[in-house]
């Protein structure tokens, strides 16, 4: 039925008859459909139509699943005259894609995508060009943050924008497709173009809308007919629409490339496009012609990343929210786990391991949503004998991912939404082999790590802020899970309500938890943190060393514990000491301890503006803007590396002026190559030395003063809203429970027995939580490159006449701890 409907949608009956006649003639002169002995079995094809009568073109994956029950896990089917081998079930798909990765690893582009991509790019290409583009895209997307921490804050920031949009609907029902697409698209855009876009920027929104519509069109029955019978092309209106969208996005991309080219700085690539243009330029300059870095590959690869990076993840998220609305009890469980484990603080990727139920729900959403049901068509790169069947080189192969994700031998309840598929008896998360929504093998999804991070952060943040329900008048049962037709499976059009879950309801929720209930009841006693008795006017000033307040506070913490009160004159201050306490306050209770308390002098100077000394919405906006823009200008990215290396050169020049060594000898010896950030992983000892320097130097010993944003009960103590709080970072970096030799310079703190670098939780020189240093990634990169470059070129020694022991490590007084005034020799290395 689907087939004939598709015909009737697209043709007049006269042209249809004419076309059928042509097909009959072609069939008669061909030996179509003749089966070889060892061909995989399959239903007998009809002339011209092949097996189209057995396939519902609106849901071909579903028909193939049914056919696999009859013909087994490797079978042949004819889409018109096109012979296709279908692989079904986890074991078979895995065996083909993973164990015979090369043989089954080529792509068979559908005709409509061959027309537009012409064998370029990464999705629909093959051979050396595909290999080079895939490698280049992977390397560069990783450099621009894919799967890394750098991306985490970008995604979290984008969640904030999305939340603002959702809030505007004030709990009323709306279609979430567009805002979700824009938010997700911005993540790939910032990696590809180097910037995000506003949701009301018509250039951006039209590009996303067109991409989304194209994916839907590419899976429509009439375009499938075109893929099988190209002769009908000009009669198919959806094909024309698809090509129109493709051309419009192509034009827009060409315009964007032009603009990026105008401002291109090879030392500072903003994103994938810059990196590509620089590579292209370098190859041209060195006279290498005939390479893969040409405009067509740029255009197709960017388009592929843009489409694949937007549609898939946004669709999965919409399925997730719809499933939450349909199964409110599961949503309850997710939100209970969220409030118990992270409360209202900002989520981090690291939290995933402590949120097994939520993780299971995301995995189960991906499994059931099954958004790429037949993967993308593969092709055999050579003759293969597989499970006793012969498959000729060049045969189209569909790895039927539906049959893996719904495999009855692998899943207990393959057709239900059952998060327990991913939980063991103790409620711990368990991986499942047959979880294969990203496919596997050579053509496995290139954006898997990015998608996984996005799904987690977006999903958690949305569920922290909203409760999702069906539109008024629609029951949970009415929510229809039948997917819309398309190349990827979207939910059918629907609206949901995103009802803001107020902080109050979160807190109320929390009081049900025994630990929290304990806190709430102790609040009634208003037990303030202990501390030394203050004198009138002076407070505890006599106890606080004038120069090294942080050391006095360390001493006081030994007496009064990890949360204590101290009076700076008449100003009451609560001090937090030790890794566990500081982390609990700044990370787990980020909101309550996240305000800045201005020092009077800073308040006078800054007027409460800017990002360090401000609070409220102004701070939020400035921090977000500064972070986005510093990142756009390279912070924490490869783009920054070149800039820092350049600066090292200037510094090295200054240093060498003080020595009488010959410049020429210097450059010859250091002529070895320049360090790169990537080298860090191969320099564990250097890395440990840098970390240990930061730990021991402890340059921000009391962080900057915080302030409670509301009344807080913390570790049994009551702290009033507006109280100044000092997270005593010294007490974290020198915590005797955390460090083996807290007061010595001991790089081994960061090395395991094999000499490999190990992270330490109590390494917190940048502080943590809401007010964590905004420039952490930049600083870490600078420290590494400066330090390594200087040590590559110089040996540092005390000034003549000063012994190593004479070098005094007592820091200078100041807001940050500087080394005391001293001179060193920078002796150029051989
Ligand atoms: C939930 C999200 C996603 C899902 C379920 C998904 C799934 C898939 C699947 C099934 C394939 C086809 C694999 C095959 O042919 O065997 C694929 C390919 C691909 N995906 Fe994804 N994907 C997702 C997100 C992303 C993102 C965010 C990006 C952006 C970088 C991306 C980029 C690609 C590319 C470039 C390919 C083609 C790889 C090649 O042919 O070598 N995907 N994806």
From TrEMBL:
One Pfam match: p450
Task: Give compartment(s).
Answer: Endoplasmic reticulum membrane; Microsome membrane
For this UniProt entry, the molecular function terms from Gene Ontology, in alphabetical order, are:
heme binding; iron ion binding; oxidoreductase activity, acting on paired donors, with incorporation or reduction of molecular oxygen, reduced flavin or flavoprotein as one donor, and incorporation of one atom of oxygen
Entry's PROSITE patterns? CYTOCHROME_P450 (PS00086)
Gene Ontology CC annotations of this record: endoplasmic reticulum membrane
Q: Where does the chain cross the membrane?
A: 6-29
Q: Name one GO biological process term.
A: xenobiotic metabolic process
Q: Which cofactor does it need?
A: heme
In the bilayer, the protein is annotated as:
Peripheral membrane protein
Q: What is its main location?
A: endoplasmic reticulum
Keyword set for this entry?
Endoplasmic reticulum, Heme, Iron, Membrane, Metal-binding, Microsome, Monooxygenase, Oxidoreductase, Transmembrane, Transmembrane helix
In which residues is heme bound? 445
InterPro entries in UniProt = Cyt_P450, Cyt_P450_CS, Cyt_P450_E_grp-I, Cyt_P450_sf, Cytochrome_P450_fam2
Q: Which SUPFAM superfamilies match?
A: Cytochrome P450
Q: Which family does it belong to?
A: Belongs to the cytochrome P450 family.
What name does UniProt use for this protein? Cytochrome P450 2K1-like
Q: Which organism is it from?
A: Pleuronectes platessa (European plaice)
- Organism ancestry: Eukaryota, Metazoa, Chordata, Craniata, Vertebrata
